[in-house]
Write a structure and sequence with these properties.
The protein has 300 residues and is an alpha+beta fold. The chain has 10 helices and 13 strands. The structure holds zinc ion (ZN).
């Protein structure tokens, strides 16, 4: 399905850019209709919608770092006893999806704008890169700390990959839907390919400069329909000697659930366990956690 009526400012798209003189690369994304489609598949209360919107922006930014077709990025936040016990988002070939498992009654006690810690408690964030070309999987796990998922992701890049990274997210919910935007900046003094780095220099003057400029973006600018993605980059970095900009992938809502997948999963249960799951018609009804699509499965 493609998005009709896209404003020229361009929702649901990514932009890649590099600042060659500063050894920095960046990504900017803005999500509109895709975000509404993903969120409207669930009846989430406002704080969970907000959390999922932020997670989807971060997932799109991280996913856009993948180079090969069919590679996948998965962001998973999990906790033992949090109000939110699981958040999963993934990205592949521009397809984005995600869901949040939470305890509604405990959430209601937290008020309208709970902190990340209030939502998760002691949790962790796992980021997984599945690379299609080499079939390699890289996973890094960091504590879910800081005031936002974006901050926790910054820690991931610093701790697991030794790459200084800045991520900012803005979310704007209105009567016409939700718009969310984000920017990611990274310092790659040894070039884009993963060479071993002896130590991380957060105070590297080139990175300090880029991080100060990038950090001056406001949440409002990241969602402002009057400022397109090119405009965001220009506003931040117009004084740089060289900016290289190239369009990234269009983002769509995508889910890979199939009836065959659920048949395979259910076939692994004992027959007695399957009998307990059947409805009055003898069918087992399962719904996809990501997109809420329902599947009625007829298995002996
Ligand atoms: Zn699905």
């Amino acid at each position: 399905m493609t998005d009709q009526n896209q404003p020229s400012t361009g929702f649901d798209r990514l932009l890649h850019f590099t600042l060659p003189d500063r050894d920095a690369r960046g990504r900017v994304v803005r999500l509109g209709p895709v975000l509404d489609r993903i969120i409207s598949a669930h009846s989430y209360p406002a704080p969970i919608r907000q959390l999922l919107a932020e997670a989807l922006v971060v997932t799109a930014l991280l996913g856009s770092l993948l180079k090969d077709q069919d590679s996948q990025l998965t962001l998973q936040a999990q906790t033992q006893d949090g109000v939110v016990d699981l958040l999963v988002c993934d990205y592949r070939n521009g397809e984005l999806r995600g869901y949040v498992r939470h305890d509604r009654a405990r959430l209601d006690e937290l008020g309208p704008a709970p902190s990340l810690f209030a939502l998760f408690g002691d949790g962790y964030l796992a980021i997984t890169f599945d690379l299609a070309a080499t079939k390699q999987r890289y996973q890094g796990v960091v504590p879910l700390e800081g005031s936002s998922l974006a901050e926790a992701c910054q820690s991931y890049f610093l701790q697991s990959e030794q790459v200084p990274t800045l991520i900012r997210v803005g979310i704007e919910s209105g009567p016409e839907g939700c718009v969310a935007g984000g920017i990611l900046l990274q310092h790659l003094p040894d070039g884009e390919e993963g060479r071993e780095r002896l130590h991380v220099q957060l105070d590297h003057p080139e990175w300090e400069h880029v991080a100060i400029l990038g950090g001056s973006i406001t949440p409002k600018e990241l969602t402002d329909p009057a400022l397109d993605l090119e405009g965001v980059v220009w506003r931040l970095f117009h004084e740089e000697r060289e900016i290289r900009v190239e369009p990234g992938q269009s983002i769509v809502r995508g889910c890979r659930c199939t009836i065959e997948h659920y048949q395979d999963v259910l076939a692994r249960f004992a027959p007695e366990a399957r009998d307990e799951m059947r409805n009055d018609e003898g069918l087992i009804v399962v719904d996809c956690a990501f997109c809420s699509r329902e599947f009625s499965i007829d298995l002996p």
